Structure formats: structure tokens, C-alpha cells
Amino acid sequence: MGKNRVTHHDNAASIVACAPEEEVARGPRLGLRAQVLLVSTVCVAPLAAAVACGSDSVGDTDTAGSASATDGTGSDTDASASVTDTDAASVTDTDAGTGSGTDSGTDTDAGTETDAGTETGTDTGAPVDCSAATTNIEEVVCAAEAFLAGLSSDELSAANLPFSDAVSRTKWSNLPGQERPGVQMGALSTDSQARALTLMTAVLSSAGRSDLDGVRAADDYLGTMGGMGGMGGMGGQYAAGNYYVSVLGTPSTTGDFAVMFGGHHMAFNMTYIAGVGYPIPNHLGVEPKAEFTVDGEAYAPMTGEGAALLAVFAAFDSETLAAAFLAGQTFSDVLIGPVEYGTGSVDAAQAKYPTGSNRAGVLVSTLSSEQQALVTAAIAEWVEDADPEVAAELMAAYTAEEAFADTYVAWAGTEDAGVDADVNGTYMRIDGPRLWIELACQNGVVIQGQTHYHSIYRDKQFDYGGSL
Questions:
Q1: Beta-carbon neighbour count of residue 119 at 10 Å?
Q2: Which of 97, 74, 275, 81 minimizes the C-alpha distance to 178?
Q3: What stretch of H or E contains 330?
Q4: For residue 217, which phi and psi values (nearest 5 degrees)?
Q5: What is the model's pTM?
Q6: Rounded to whole angstroms, how far apart are CA atoms 336 and 458?
Q7: Pairing mode, strands 362-363 and 408-412
């Protein structure tokens, strides 16, 4: 069972507002994230879900050095999110927004849903059978080919873009109304929706698929509360149908291609290079962060991520917690969200990573073995959303002894309050030689008086498989 689904079902496969899909069971996909359940029982109580929460804005002020650069990179409230360095010597350099600004309010049709039951294309109603696949890449290729084969010619031209289309590959955002490549789930037939979700089941682990389902369900939940997509989605309701899927390139076990699935609070960007998968960059967020119910089914996406990071800081004594605090810096969102939106390059993201003496926090290698295990479990919450065959190699690289000797954990927010997910501006991150994970807590956009989560998982060397 996935980590987001609260009610108990033998098959938690389909998402509310989408037709049920038929899947080939691949067995349990657990991994290190299972440790979080044990850790949370012992450690979570003192800090009650401390995670970085934000306000659907991905703007920021870079605090990596003496200069800070303010970006508007996507805001449901059109308020510029900021990371503020109180150093008097700082200089502000204003950049062009990537994912918000004037563009974010002009996409009026991205949220429009088409009847999910409308039959189109060459759908035959037959389930996807990838049972002959012996590896994950074979299963992904099989599922991708089946998805594309069921589309109409118009849908296919929108869904299957060239792998060389770098601009489209960087068009992901936290905003519901932002332009994305691919076909909208709500506009597809029931068969095509099922095949799209079967593809994502192949791409992701059971935990990752559960995150996908839970975040989409959260948009249905917001839609019932009158959410209209924020300033980034004027006229487009929050809804599970307002998510887009695309395959860039020709699916192949030996070639290069990418699978993208995204919408509000979600960007699964899986790139395959010569058969090797790279699930980064990956954005997840959710409003509300507490459990909610849609059509009688309970969901709680990202509770595992929050609990795991909370456990890391709950295990620190006061001295270590103080050393991990990013003094003089405040965060209203993640620092390195969709800053490269539509640029076709990773340069904007690369420019924002703290370097040299500007990297701050506590080195993981200085922590006890028990504390290091908590960091490993937290990392797994993001990395193990990918299929186990993809995640295993990445986990080994990120948690190796030499990697932990250059990996920092840090937090920001209200120092007196401590790490508290219910406080706007609480922020946590893991910064390794390759790995970059951020979790921010923002005030709610639709649900007032509560914080909600934004997170980002990146690889400094292998975002987009290192192909941009």
C-alpha cells in the first residue's frame, strides 16, 4: 500500500476523477523509507511535523553569498517568495521570473477539464500487458509505447515531442495554470487515462505512485473548496484532470527519452539515458498537509517526507540544532524551484546552489550512526519515489561515506519556536555533493490558517540525466 493512502484497499490504483486503471502488479516496493515509520514513533512527537512549508510561490532571494538574487519563479498568490540574507553587505540582483510574473496570470485554459469519459483516438479498451518485461526499463518502454499507441493523431503530436526539445523538458512548475508539454489527463479517454497511469506506475515505486495519487486528490479537494488555481491559473480550477503527461523521444531500452507528468504541486521528470533512469528534478507539494478525504477515501501525501525530516532534527541536541540553523536567512519557499522554466537549460538552477564557504549547516559525517540513519531515511523519502531499480544506485551514491563527509543538513525559520511545520517560513534542506533536497512550509493559499508543503529534489550533476 502506498504511503499517501490512509484507507485500506487491496488495490489503491485509481485516483478520484479519473477512470479506474488496470495494472499489472509488480509486488511491494518498500526500501529505506520504511524506517521512517519506526523513527517517527520515537522522535516525531517533540516537534509535531516540522517541515518547511510555503505559499505556492517559488520566488527567492539567493543567500549563498554576499549577494542575493531575487527571482519570481511561480506564485499562486503573485507574491514574490524570498530568501533573505540579513548581511548588510548584500546586493540584490533582480532576475527575470521563470514560472510566474506576467505569464502566470495569462494561461486561462490550462485548468479547463474535458469529460474524462470521452472516447478518442485508437483506444481499444484492452489493458496494457507488460508482464513479459524482466527489467524496469523494459516495463517503462512497454507502458510508454502502449500509452502513445492509444492516442489520436492530434493527441500524439502533443504528447510525443522530440527528446531534443529542451525548452519543453524544462516547462514544469508548481503552479496549476502554467503551460506544460503533453496532453491533459482530463481531456483523455478513460482508456488513455488508465494507460497514462499504468506508465507512471512503471516509472515510479508504489510510494511514488501513492504520492502522485495523493497530490492529485488534494487538487480535487481544493476544487471542492472553491479553489480556482491561484494567480498562476486564472479561470482554471484545481482538479485531478488538470495534470499533463508527455513522452519526449522514442521509448527505448538503450536510447534516450523522457517521461513527464505534472501539474499543481507536482513535477515528475524522469529521463532515461541509455536505459538508466534519472528522476530529477522532482517537485512535490500538497495543500492541505494534513489528512483529507475525497469521495470517502482518505489521503495524506507527503506525511512521510515531513516526518522523516522532522526526525532528523528532533534527534539533535540543542548545540547541534543551533549549529544547523541558517542564521540571518529566511525562506518563504524552496530556493531552487522551477527557476529554469522554459529555458532549455539547467544554468539558472546551477547558479543558485551555495558553494564553498557559503554551504552551511551540520556535516552528516559528524553525526552519530543513529542520526546518520535518520538522514538516510529522510533522503529515501524522495529518492525512493522512483522505481527501486532506479533508486538503488542513487541511494548508494547519496549516502556513501564520502558523500556524507560533504553533506550538510540545515534548517531555518523561527529559532525560538524551533523546527515546526505549522509555522510559516519553517525550512529544511539536505545539501550534498550531488544531492539537493528542500522542504518549505508556507501559509495556505486556499485553506487559510494552515501551512502547506513545497519540496524539491535535485541532483547537481544529473538533473535531466545530465543531458541539458
A1: 13
A2: 74
A3: strand 329-331
A4: -65, -35
A5: 0.78
A6: 9
A7: antiparallel
Distance from the first to the final alpha carbon of the chain: 35
Q: For residue 355, how many other CB atoms are within 10 A of its CB?
A: 10
The rounded distance, in Å, linking the Cα atoms of 316 and 327 is: 17
Rg (Cα) of the chain, in Å, rounded?
20
Beta bridge partners of 61: 70
Q: Locate 173 and state its grid cell.
A: 512548475
**Which phi and psi angles does 390 have, rounded to 5°?**
-85, -45
Taking the alpha carbons of 321, 326, 331, 335 in that order, is the dihedral positive or negative? negative
Cell of 30: 518498500
Query: pLDDT band at residue 315, thresholds of 50, 70 and 90?
Result: very high
Question: 70 with 80: CB under 8 angstroms?
Answer: yes
Is residue 359 exposed (0-12), middle (13-18) or buried (19+ Cβ within 10 Å)? middle
Q: Tell me if 396 sits within 8 A of 425, measured CB to CB.
A: no
Secondary structure E strands in 111-198: 160-161, 183-184
Strand partners, 331: 83
Alpha-helical runs (H) found in 44-185: 101-104, 136-149, 153-159, 166-169
User: Which residue's entry shows cell 515531442?
Assistant: 161
SS3 114: coil
281: left (phi over 0), alpha (psi -120 to 50) or beta: beta
Is residue 251 reached through a cis peptide bond, with omega within 30 degrees of 0 on the bond before it? no
d(CA 26, CA 28) in angstroms, rounded, equals 7
Spatial distance between the Cα atoms of 326 and 223, rounded to a whole number of angstroms: 36
Please give the Cα distance from 413 to 180 (Å, whole number): 32
Instruction: Determine how many CB atoms are found less than 10 A away from the CB of residue 326.
Output: 21
pLDDT digits (tens, 9 = 90+) for 395-453: 999 999 999 999 999 999 998 889 999 999 999 999 999 999 999 999 999 998 999 99
Q: How far apart are CA 158 and CA 139, in angstroms?
A: 23
